[in-house]
Design goal:
Blueprint (H helix, E strand, L loop, with lengths): L19 E7 L2 E10 L5 E6 L4 E3 L18 E7 L7 E7 L8 H4 L7 E2 L3 E8 L2 E8 L7 E11 H7 L8 E8 L3 E5 L2 E6 L4 E5 L1 H9 L12 E5 L6 E8 L4 E5 L4 E5 L10 E5 L4 E10 L5
Antiparallel strand pairs: 1-2, 2-3, 3-4, 5-6, 6-7, 6-8, 8-9, 10-20, 11-16, 11-20, 12-13, 12-19, 13-14, 14-15, 16-17, 17-18
């Protein structure tokens, strides 16, 4: 009757704010569905739930680190939508931006203060390490494409010349290349791949400076604004998908194996795309989609 409540069971080690729980097909099989418990900053566990008892498959990876699907500095308290007729589970996160120097909407005098992420579809896939959660932008984003340029089998230098005339504000870019040291620069936003550490690195220093200035707690402010996104090579290749909006940057690695969301404000005059490499970088595929505004 929604008035009288009785405690049935406590799920250990799941005490966190904004907990969400949703049912997802494994490897696209609707007859094999597992439950996911996720918390506000993006940690999760896959398991089985019969309505009263939770049987988790493990909340840590082989190194003892918590399983995570989000590695950025803004994503928080996502909401899952999972009762649609097509059976998809769609996630929308809150991209926090409340500190000075890191709240572009307030500083621009907009009638709202913050923003939501691009909606992403959640899938579960069987991997050598167990069932893992993947996130990718929903397919409906393709309805915003106005122009596409696709190139294959080229070097970073060749890519620079091919995109010298392709200057767009809103972008959905996918790069698949060999896993060697390089930096992808999209409108002044530098995303570096570290070959030895097998990770992408993005530095959001403006956010760190703003939050440090507003730090009111005991102890020193420790965040340097550096975020590292795991990107182990697959057959010697890495794939990075980059979504650039007027006040956000969202990264998706290896077809959604890891993701990272940031609040950023790219220079409106900078529309360049280029790749800096130490050795000639072999690019398998580079796709850049120009996006139209969803509301203007």
């Amino acid at each position: 009757d929604l008035r009288n409540w009785e405690i049935m069971r406590d799920i250990p080690n799941k005490a966190a704010e904004c907990i969400d729980m949703f049912h997802v097909a494994v490897d696209g099989n609707p007859n094999n569905r597992k439950w996911v418990i996720a918390d506000a900053p993006g940690r999760y566990e896959v398991g089985e739930f019969d309505g009263t008892k939770w049987n988790g498959f493990g909340a840590e990876d082989k190194n003892g680190d918590r399983l995570r699907f989000e590695y950025g500095d803004a994503w928080y308290a996502a909401q899952a939508f999972n009762h649609a007729p097509d059976g998809r589970t769609v996630h929308v996160g809150w991209l926090r931006s409340k500190q000075p120097g890191y709240r572009p909407f307030l500083e621009a005098g907009m009638p709202f203060t913050q923003q939501m992420s691009v909606p992403v579809e959640i899938t579960l896939r069987t991997t050598p390490d167990g069932i893992r959660l993947y996130r990718n932008p929903v397919k409906e984003i393709e309805k915003l494409y106005t122009k596409t340029r696709k190139l294959t089998n080229l070097t970073a230098k060749q890519a620079l010349s091919k995109f010298s005339d392709f200057k767009r504000e809103l972008l959905d870019l996918t790069l698949r290349c060999e896993a060697t040291q390089f930096t992808l620069n999209v409108r002044g936003l530098k995303i570096r791949y570290e070959r030895d550490d097998q990770e992408f690195v993005f530095v959001n220093s403006k956010r760190a400076v703003g939050e440090k200035a507003a730090w009111k707690r005991k102890g020193r402010y420790r965040d340097d604004g550096i975020r590292r996104i795991p990107a182990p090579p697959i057959d010697g290749k890495v794939t990075l998908r980059v979504l650039v909006d007027r006040a956000s940057l969202e990264l998706f690695v290896n077809d959604g194996q890891a993701a990272a969301s940031f609040v950023v404000v790219p220079d409106p005059k900078n529309r360049d795309i280029f790749i800096k490499d130490n050795l000639p970088l072999k690019i398998d595929e580079l796709i850049v989609n120009d996006l139209k505004s969803i509301w203007k």
